[in-house]
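User: I'll paste a sequence; please echo it back and then give the predicted structure.

Assistant: Echoing your sequence first, then the prediction.
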Amino acid sequence: MWKNSFQTPLDASLPEIDLYSSSRERKAYENMGDLYTIIVATEHLERAYAQDAITQTEYTTECNKLLSQFKIAEKAALGNHNGGMTTETFMRLYQMDCPRAADRLLVKGVPELVKTSGNGGQYCAVTVAETVQHFITAMDAVKLDQRAVDELQPLLSDLMNALVQLPDTPNDFGPNHKVQKWLEKLNAMRAVEMIDEDDGRQLYHDLDSAYSEFTRHLKTTTT
């Protein structure tokens, strides 16, 4: 029987190399694996939506779930104990070619926004009520000195999702742009980071201004 002369037999005397040496290291690898999985899943979801392989409802539901999971996973994997690594450096280190996921998770922070039509008075009333509640919740959080990214980002994401569901708002609707600007700023930061006092005051001012513009818009559309 012919034998491959280039085949090198395994040396049973060589020690096995463990990926981790403690339960803490094992947990760290598991956390990074979770983050990697969420980024890849988001890339696949964005591609599927762009190819019209899933519905708008399916996309929005799954995207919101991934966005929520992302901040938790990012904090666990890239927290204070990880040498200041960011998601961007994590993706470069592991050669992740996921441009759509990077844009959704690190820039936009909300699902692809699709404006609804102005049909259905009851639906409109519910949407307005939800938007008001999200405004109040976000402003109260800032007023109570919540400054952590992983506390503020979900609140602004919920507010942005509500705003885009409002029918008959112009494309350059001011509240949308103000909230989106802060979402992009928070998404560029790590979950464990905090905005400073000046940013906190500016965020409250912008939310208050956006809320005032929102209420003015409601008055003009109901008169």
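The two ends are 93 Å apart (CA to CA). The CA atoms of residues 99 and 180 lie 19 Å apart.
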